[in-house]
What does this fold into?
Amino acid sequence: MIKIIYKKRLFLIFVLILVLISLFVYGESYTYKNTINRYQNNSNNTTDYDWKNLVQQQIDDMRTRLDSPYIQENSINSVKIKIEQLEYYIDQDINPITPSAARFTVQFMEQGVYMFLPLLIILLAADMVSGEFSNKTVKLLLSRAVPRWKILLSKFLVLLIMTTIVILFTAVISIIVSKIVFKIWGFNEPVVTGFKVINGMLDSSSVIQVTQWQYIILIYSLGWYVAVIIGSISFMISVLVRSTATSIGIMMAAIICGEFMQFFLADWNLVKYFFVTNLNLTKYLTGSYQPIEGMSLVFSIMILFIWAIISLIISFGVFTKQDVLV
Amino acid sequence: MEEKILVLKNVKKRINKREIIKGISFEIEKGDILGFLGPNGSGKTTTLRMIVGLSKPTDGEITICGDSITRSYVKAMTNVGCIIEGPDLYNYLTGFDNLEMLGYMNKNVTKKDIMDSVELLGMKNRIHDKVNTYSLGMKQRLGLAQALLHKPKLLVLDEPTNGLDPLGITEFRNIIINLAKEKGISILISSHLISEVQLMCNKVSIINNGKVLKNISVEELVNSGEVVWILNDNEKGKNFLKKRWGIHTKIINDKLEGNFDDISVIENINSSIIREGLKIKFVERKPKTLEELFLKLTEGNQII
It folds into this structure.
């Protein structure tokens, strides 16, 4: 049964893969050029590429910013923490700058997890149920000798499988493409994670060093988690509105609104219970991130989990009860 | 006693506080073709939707082969195949893929079953083409193939000939009649075309405004006591019939039309006409069409 619905979605996946590849290629070459440019501008030194100098330069830049009178109150802390992090890198002799396949792969997911990835998943999930309604094929499925919850469950499983494929594909493509361009694997480089902010000070006592390999797996698991949550929510919308365009629209609007709310309504405590505000899971790992007072990695994971469970309950409730009038 | 395939008992459906179906009851026996006749908006499609499980009745009971669709849904549905409001299939798949995919959803549907139903509907040559290259007639057949995959005992067709050309309708009708005759499948066809129902069905249920107006067999419907003669001298014939048989007749154009209760004496009447020296050019039992009956029954129909 699962195979069934799978088959027709393959077309969609192909399209998505194409989109992904083209975006990747463009994105990575752009970052690559940027890194080189920045380095050359800053150091006036094109031959000797010493990352420690570069990092030091960044630290100096940030210090100047801190001294500037125009700096915003609330960004002082995060800049301070950034500086301390960079200093830690220099102390530990860990290179945070030179691009490598592994680093790019991580960065891509870090950047994509709260915007790009959700949008892809929405495209996939929004069509799952409403698509059947808009081309009226839902009646073929529902007039079979299969209980409705089974049909919806198989749809949801397909969504999970496709989400996994998308995540894996993202990883594989970014590894391959960035390897071609940067020519460095860098999978065994150490990564530090587990910085903690205690009273505005960076606490490096709980820092753990992992290799890039492990870090990639960690980041992509978080990405997968986010994708599944977004998938479940769009799945519900898809069941509720019965039109693909509308359900994509609603989800996109929710995501974009959420981003805005995060910036403008950060004082409003309710905002932190909105799912979009909690999407940026990977950023917690760098330690300096706390979009709204009281949010943490565990908090966000719990909130997202609750959202997904509620969405699924609503989806199944509505889908098994409703009259199909197409 | 014959096997009851489908039984509806006082089925009601309310949507947004408006009662759309106000208590419908009818039965289908094995091998029956029941025409479900009613004007647009009379509740045909709503009723059929309830039978195939797309929506749930607010009241009443629907049983298919003895299984209630509310209590043992899956068991009841294994015996039903349907096309509701046109054959909507996955356009970007081939006909075969469509069937294969839907076949997965039923237990025990093998490749052979699929090919059998394809062959039955005579679409072997085109089955591996994409559905969006099919004509409406082809889609309709594919829809039928899909409905027949799991060898149901009841076939529910909602206005199956909508949009087909006359040739397509004839083909379709033959397929349906064959199915009922050879495979013993009971068929429920909804339609607003009376002629169509008359040609295909052996029973008719006429509904309007969410109520069944009449459950009746087609033969009963058609058998009326009207006879039409064309004689070489209609005037003389008229007088003769009145004198000899006490039958009042009317002359309409070149026809002599009479109405009497016992149609079985028609042979005696005809031979007496000949003995009288008149010549019969033509004689026919005037078919009372569903059309007339339908109009009579739905007279004063208003959409409330």
Summary: The longest helix of chain B spans residues 166-183. The CA atoms of residues 155 and 187 of chain B lie 5 Å apart. The mean pLDDT of chain B is 82. The longest strand of chain B covers residues 4-15.
